[in-house]
Amino acid sequence: MYLGYFDEADHTSKNNFTVCGLTAIHVEHAADLSRQIEKIRIVGEFKPEDLLKFSTNSRPVYCSEDNHRQTKDSVISAAVDHGVVFFGYCHFNEDHVAHDSDRNRIY
Hints:
The protein is of the alpha+beta class. It is built from 2 helices and 3 strands; from the N terminus they run E-E-H-H-E.
């Protein structure tokens, strides 16, 4: 069995692109990967309440861009070592006068 985590990137009705991703990990590897990510966060000096997102703009104020990048690289390497798979989807949104807020979600 796999665990799946789905997310979209900054969805608004006015974005030109809809970008979504699904990250999947086999349940046998989830606990070990979680422990490893905890260690990586400690080495990267991330506090428990700090977000560790992909966007550099989301990094904690005290965290340098280099430290943020290195921490993310370490997490990605750990994920690869644990057989994590990522499925990405990108859809170009044609211009719509109405900016219908549901147009990105239909995909």
